[in-house]
Description:
Strand order of the largest sheet: 4-5-6-7-8
Bound molecules: adenosine monophosphate, manganese (II) ion
Helix content: 25-40%
Shape: globular
Strand content: 5-15%
Order of helices and strands: EHEHEEEHHHHHHEHEHEH
Radius of gyration: 18 Å
Number of strands: 8
Number of helices: 11
Distance between the termini: 17 Å
Mean pLDDT: 97
Amino acid sequence: MSFLNADLHCHSVVxxxxxxxxxxxxxxxxxxxxxxxxxxxxxxxxxxxxxAAARANGMRYLTGTEISVTxxxxxxxxxxxxxxxxxxxxxxxLLATRGGRGARAQEMSEGLAKVGIRGAYExxxxxxxxxELISRTHFARFLVETGVCRDTxxxxxxxxxxxxxxxxxxxxxxxxxxxxxxxQAGGIAVIAHPARYNFSANEEYALFTEFKAHGGQGVEVIxxxxxxxxAVRYADTALEFGLAASxxxxxxxxxxxHTDLGQLPLLxxxxxxxxxxxxxxxx
Length: 283
Ligand code: AMP
Ligand code: MN
Ligand code: MN
Ligand code: MN
């Protein structure tokens, strides 16, 4: 089943994507996606719409989210798949994780004002589809639209990453909580885009070991943010740690994302796909 065109990572206007769940579903289906999951950051408010849209477009569906976690002082993303979207502990956990975003955004805006960029909070809000989910991506869109930077990667490089004027350190969920919210709701926890964290070998080993100990079962091997060498490397890591493998574009927007929905290499046949473990949760 590793040859399935599954895309189990993308974002809608319910977090920091620019398309509605319905538009994403139509785009995924026309790109040949057979099994889809919408994984908005810290939010599952789009799940019922996505599930209905998947059905309307002839795709199978797994529930999804991408939880922001603080691990060893770094932000790590944990994708949850196949959980019960009405699970109360998961809903409360995500609500708490979203909770600090408003105050963080105000502080980011103050940092940007100090280098002469005024009104960034109000500006970013214009791009927000969900008032509980203001993210750095919305600031990036504002700074591109107003001509401060050419594209969103430039905004992150100059303004929104550690040590830069709009960066505000933040404490997200713990790794253990995120994994438990997902698994106790019947789903599977997956380490998102592991090559993106710039961990030392020791830190990465600690992440995978603790993730397993908490009950984590999967890792993204094929993602829009991995090179082919990184995919090979994390295929080995999946085997080493006995983790199932996931595949997802991390698509955010037709104007910003290099990897479109469903348009990425298939999972290597040597790995166990996460959707094999989730066969009973596929809608
Ligand atoms: P936040 O959850 O507010 O910290 O925002 C994180 C989001 O910002 C990620 O999910 C990406 O969508 C986006 N992002 C992070 N780093 C970059 C980057 N270097 N270039 C473009 N987008 C980025
Ligand atoms: Mn994002
Ligand atoms: Mn992510
Ligand atoms: Mn993502």
